[in-house]
Design goal:
With 441 residues, the protein is of the alpha+beta class. It has three domains: 47 residues, Transferase, Pyrimidine Nucleoside Phosphorylase, Chain C (Transferase, Pyrimidine Nucleoside Phosphorylase, Chain A, domain 3, Up-down Bundle); 258 residues, 3-Layer(aba) Sandwich (Pyrimidine Nucleoside Phosphorylase, Chain A, domain 2); 89 residues, Aldehyde Oxidoreductase, domain 3 (Alpha-Beta Complex), CATH 3.90.1170. 46% of the residues lie in helices and 16% in strands.
Length: 441
Amino acid sequence: MRMYDLIYKKKYGEKLSKEEIDFIVQGYTKGDIPDYQMSAFLMAVCLKGMDMEETTNLTLSMRDSGETLDLSKIHGIKVDKHSTGGVGDKTSLCLSAMVAACGVPVAKMSGRGLGHTGGTIDKLESIKGFSTSISGEQFFENVNRIKMAIMGQTADLAPADKKIYALRDVTATVDCIPLIASSIMSKKLASGADAIVLDVKMGSGAFMKTLDDAIALADTMVKIGTMAGKHTSAVITNMDQPLGLAVGNSLEVIEAINLLKGQGPKDLLEDCMALGCLMLIGGGVAKDHDDAEKMLLQTIEDGSALKKFAEFVEAQGGSLEFIYDTDKFEKAQYVEPVLSPVSGYVSHIQTDEIGMCSLILGGGRETKDSVIDLSVGLILNKKLGDKVEKGEPLAYIHSNDQAKTKAAIERFLNAYTISDNFTDEVKTIYAKVTSSGIIKF
Ligand code: URA
């Protein structure tokens, strides 16, 4: 087999066999296929696509490129949740505690921030003493004992994806459904959970900009998971604005804790409820959506989700004081309002740019080795559809550097559109995709 011939075949939209896809993935992972040939192949996939069988074969080949985790030491049906990436998305923190409090084991592998999107591991490190570098044994022990543990992704999980993703990032081949679906699902399948719930983000802060594309991506991932024998479902959620009000590592953890105390923003709670219901159904503890909804709300009302979060933090070395008194989190030195230059309604938010504001304040990585400032970020005061008067704060910038504050304010103002027109009701959840079909809301 020759890589040249396979690139040629895909260039003309021909279907590749399982053996051909294995040849490409294995050859590239081992270093036998050079970056320039792989780049040409990835671009051909972007332009000509892959059918369901090819996409599934690509996913399985990437899954098998490294270690696959065996979670059989954990009792019960293990449910994993994955978001395709967004701004202000702290769902994993609060949702995991709510679901674990309902008795479903949450054994989660999470990542660090990427580009304008934040990462769960970075966020959790804003809790003093907290460590995600725990051993596999400790991870299993914690999930069996308290039903919840989060650790960093091991280096050997789907190494083909790591290499291919880095190449896609610099060859304009990220926003392609078969490539995104195989990238995410190869890691999820290698992580060993029995059931997978996907949060597919759609809008100005997401890879998928339209509902049709988001549904196509969700449907592809649900089909791959189902074919691989995992109970897989997805919700399509709004990323036309940040989720909740907080963007930035410690600010997001505080918001997640506040949600567990019953004081969270409405859209964050809606996101947690939609995903949580699928997790409880996938985990076999709720018979239907209504049953699951009642159980999840109960964990907030009776404080069991907050208690679960505290147990989880303590088991991974974090300080409990931070959970019960969020004033303990390190604060940024300056809090500066971003004042609206005009009166009107917030009609558009360029959400990835809001993520970039947090990044330039020091809350994200400019390079792989950047050290991030966990205390900086933004708290939004106005979101889509809100009425705003000239001079009223749109947001508050939390910063440790006045020059960076100035740059962030400028960028923030360019990301917000204020107009005379009132925007209709803003939805949080657009659709649900399961193996039985697609429901639009
Ligand atoms: N997240 C991933 O892990 N892979 C993609 O391709 C896109 C988002």
